[in-house]
UniProtKB/TrEMBL annotation:
Belongs to the ABC transporter superfamily. Gene3D superfamilies: 2.40.50.100, P-loop containing nucleotide triphosphate hydrolases. It is found in: Cell inner membrane. GO terms for molecular function: ABC-type transporter activity; ATP binding; ATP hydrolysis activity. Residues 4-242 form the ABC transporter domain. Keywords: ATP-binding, Nucleotide-binding, Transport. GO terms for cellular component: ATP-binding cassette (ABC) transporter complex, substrate-binding subunit-containing. It comes from Rhizobium meliloti. This is ATP-binding cassette domain-containing protein. It is a peripheral membrane protein. InterPro entries: AAA+_ATPase, ABC_transporter-like_ATP-bd, ABC_transporter-like_CS, ABC_transpr_MalK/UgpC-like, Mo/tungstate-bd_C_term_dom, P-loop_NTPase, Transp-assoc_OB_typ2.
Amino acid sequence: MPTINLRGAQKNYGVNSANAVSNLDLEIRDGEFMCLLGPSGCGKTTTLRMIAGLENLSGGEIRIGECVVDCVAGGVFVPPEKREMGLVFQSYALWPHLTIERNTDFGLRLRKLPKAEREERVERIMQALDIAKYRDRYPSQLSGGQQQRVALARMLAINPGVLLLDEPLSNLDARLRLEMRAELKRLHKEFKTTIVFVTHDQWEAMTLATTIAVMNEGTLQQMGTPNDIYDRPANRFVAEFVGSPPINILTFGQTGTSDVADKADAYLAARCPHLAGVGSVGIRPEAIGYATRIEDVPKGSFSGETTVTGVLPTGGNWILELRSESHTLFLTTHVLPRIEQGARVFFFAPPEALHVFDTDGRRIAEADARLSGLAYN
């Protein structure tokens, strides 16, 4: 499938209404697993529907390769059935009166494929998704995860150039979601299909995608690999939206600024004296360590004294809640904490773990270079 390009794509539903999507530039390459990630109402499903052709653009254009499939200014609109894309909805949308086999080959029958080719393709897809043993059952006789596999099989059978998935796992329980994530990852590797996946679940995006596009209020906030999104968030919104527990944010220069924020302000001023326009600093919980003695705090790290106000086990790790005079920090550890609630401890974080944002919430790249060069000096 050629590259899909959205250039200045815009969608609104009325003259006086706010844009559901605003001036979106997005490139989806052949064979990519792209996740559109963001909170409810951010425009991710609208974007998916515009790519599919279920929504007309209000402005801008969409190209598939060199072919324009939607352009308001040029008066071009290619209908959904001619875009060679498969769409899997949040609801499985299976035919209740058809068996699993007939649901799977439904699209192939519409395309009037020869019987032998149709049966061979359906058998291969059903075996790959482990639903061949249910071929004579009806959707109501399957679990939610099995029905989801049938919906995927129906789309994969017609061999679409692009597979569009609109929160397909949101109706499944935690264990089935985990199984289906692994299944989708395997299918992407096996069939090399371009996949565009809409989700509000950050872990779904982080574990599945080769590329993540984070959206908020109809605009693209950042696009990159999962590691880029997590390790170098472009702004505070991305930093706070991606991560669990969420990133610790220390805001400077506001009324009621916390004592820990004051420490961070002084720490930056001493090590990066020419850095201007800093509005806040973020620290991921897993980047923070703690020590019971000041002598064990690594030299040159950002640190302070706090009280342990909570030790929260989550199964594989623990979340520690640390309270200073006017601020609460959260840190995570994989080692069983040997401290009690109420104990005094020293938190610390290496300089390169500080994410520095300006007063408008944008990442300050200059700070990255300076802090990473400090190490523990």
